[in-house]
Amino acid sequence: MSWTRGPLAALVVCVLMLAGPAGCGSGGAHRGKTGAPPSPVGRLLDRTDAQGRRYREVDDADAPDVEIEVAPDTGNSWDVRLTVHRFRFSPAGTRPRAVPGRGTARLYLDGALVARLRTPRHRLAAGLVPRGTHQLTARLYADDNTVWAVHGKPVQSTADLTESATPEPSAAGPATGPSTGTTAGSGLPAAAPARRVRQPVRRVAMTA
Question: 43 with 177: CB under 8 angstroms?
Fold first, then answer.
């Protein structure tokens, strides 16, 4: 009995040693069931945005989509709404790697960055929009800060907005009489208060 158990035990140990590396090797853990390494998301282009972030090219069928709408809001601000397709906003703390159809949006006013968004709604403060007509652009980014792109162009949408507000009366300006509606001490009619006027916003489809 002692003679037969020894070689059998040695044989079992040998088989386990041979099978161990095959089942636990790094190749199987990293390559997955197909034996091939995971493919990257899209293709990095040499083109970059104004901040130097590279474009990540994806096919039309897999590309995210965004549309932007802007409207005057209460408190002299602007209400910004994004509608996205094949895209999810990533919460804060998400790992900085590209995942298909996921990431953040950035708002640019006349090319200058004004907000980074993780939700489709944003209130743009009135103080950020000077008088005149401007372009507000929403552009989609992956979580590694690369720009989602199709046919070499960023996935984005642009809307025109016009701020035609006149300057507000100074709080330290002349006081008006309590019942006559005249400027105190002058006998002249008080000027009508300036009103803030905004023109309608034109919605523009996504720039592919």
Answer: no
> Cα separation of 115 and 79, whole Å?
13
Strands 147-150 and 54-57: parallel
For 146-174, the pLDDT digits (tens) are: 999 999 999 999 999 999 865 454 444 44
Q: Residue 74: what pLDDT?
A: 82
> How many whole angstroms separate alpha carbon 192 and alpha carbon 168?
11
**Cβ atoms < 10 Å from Cβ of 179:** 6
If one counts every other C-beta atom within 10 angstroms of the C-beta of residue 70, the result is 22
| Under 8 Å between Cβ of 122 and 80 | yes
CA distance 12 to 70: 72
- Nearest to 135, CA basis, from 103, 117, 152, 157: 157
pLDDT at 39: 54
d(CA 117, CA 106): 6
The answer, as to whether pTM is greater than 0.90, is no
CA 107 to chain CA centroid, nearest Å: 7
pLDDT digits (tens, 9 = 90+) for 38-61: 558 999 999 999 999 999 999 999
